[in-house]
From TrEMBL:
CDD domains: GMPK
Protein's organism: Maylandia zebra (zebra mbuna)
Protein name per the record: Leucine rich repeats and guanylate kinase domain containing
Record-linked SMART domains: GuKc, LRR_SD22
An example molecular function term from Gene Ontology annotations: GMP kinase activity
Pfam families: Guanylate_kin, LRR_9
Amino acid sequence: SHSLSDISVLCSYVHLQKLELPHNKIQLSCVSHMPYLVVLDASYNEISNFFEFQPPKNLKEVNFSHNRMTKMRDLSAYASLTKLVLDNSFSEISGLEQCCRLTHLSLAHNKISRISGLGGLPLTHICLKIEGLEHLKSLQVLDLSQNRITSLSGLENLHLLGSLNLEKNLQVSEIQECKHIHDLLLLRDLSLVENPVQEQPDYKLAVIFLLQHLTVLDQEAVTVEEKVSSVNMYDPPMDVVAARDHITHLVYQLMQPQVLYETLPSADSPYPMLVLTGPRGCGKRELTHRLCQEFNEYFAYISHTTRGPYFGEENGLDYHFVSEEAFQSMIHTGKFIQTIQYGGHSYGLTRDAVEDVAREGLACCVHMELEGVFSLKKTYFEPRYILLIPTQAEKYIGHLKARGLYTQAQMDAAVSRIELYANTNRQRPGFFDNVIPDWEDAYKTLRQAVKEYLLLEEQEEGENNNRASPDNTSTELASIRRREQLVREAIVGKSPGVYSQLFKSDDSRASSALSVPSSAGAFSDLAADQLAAAVSPCSDRRPGSNVKPILPPIPTGR
Ligand SMILES: Nc1ncnc2c1ncn2[C@@H]1O[C@H](COP(=O)(O)OP(=O)(O)OP(=O)(O)O)[C@@H](O)[C@H]1O
């Protein structure tokens, strides 16, 4: 950096192997006298003639960046080159065909419109414009900074690419461009600094989400928190969706004047519910209604929706059909326990609707999508969850078509969610209390499971019930009878405290989700003394009697 212009004195240094003269104003004719030169750095000079010296036999690395070169020439005589930095004003790249050892080529800051003759080179690092790169399959580092790149198309097949520099292109403006490099699984380092795309809302999280293997973005390490936030923003897991739904309704509810519900129990005295879940159109709606009709002394159903009624559906019977505005206003006034958006409509279960059913001395029976189940599991309700899952895709699709209610997209969406349900069942033992595959005979199986829940089998079969086996001693039989009687009283006796025992979760439930219906014994597992306490006149289990606040008390001084 001494603004040298005459270096002819070096002509006598014939054994020089390394010449570094950046930031001067030199010409390079003296290099012709250096046959052993290996490294030449002549960057930031004002050289306009390109490789106009006798080729040193072993010249490997040449840096000509930031000179005044505009035109390439044939470099066959420089076949030993391995690294060549040509960040200049070239518009066309050619003449490198014979540089068969060239692995690093930098062509940033150029105005290149055409590249030819690179196909046969062993390049692993390159910096240039995108066109013509498709065949450079061994590229690992690509520096395309300060060009005029508008699209990343053309990079799709560079599967070994680990680093991509697109700084200061001023043209890349769409996050969607990242889809062209989405499949480059080795890409770890991407720089889009000073591109308009950085102005897009949530740019960083969006890019991190699209390119989840990135470790460095715009020269900054991608943190674990950013990775988690990006997934939570663009593809939140069910747990996160449910937690958000739950928080929303809890906060809105807490903002309202608090209502002491007459019958709904509290956090330590959960209210019984039966929830049928499964992908859309698996028949859970019809099954729910059939159950509520047959077991009308036990169950009632009610949910809200913003979708219009199907043919034959009645307001207040099939759903409470409400407008989107009314639904939103109900959310904001803390009415809901849980809600979901599904197929462009909103669905939700309100506290008042459950309270209405509870006041009748009945248990709620609802059907819902998996998101609803996750959300409900965050509340203090403790339903029995029954999963209805189609096992044969063709049959299921045929069934959806036969309904005539759904568009192709809706059917595809429903089919694609079968796996979601199956996975949840596989990966979370005990998440569902029963699993009923397919809908043929589903009602029979469901009815059987519900009867077992309600102990109706015993009522019908009298002495022959399977729990009171001939082997039981008279004391055991008396105990079983007493417990069963207590449960029956609890169900029909409008005694909400007892609801806490009915359907109460216990460890035995965990195993049943793994197999097709097997909930026999759910009631028999209840401890007699628990039940006795629940219905005993002197045990004060009425709602509100020992209600604990949902949130812990705020310590003094805060
Ligand atoms: N409160 C709720 N929370 C979560 N999901 C719900 C709720 N109410 C209804 N759903 C579910 O929303 C989906 C769409 O309901 P809709 O009544 O439009 O369904 P459908 O097309 O008749 O299908 P299905 O026969 O499975 O109910 C169904 O899977 C239904 O179970």
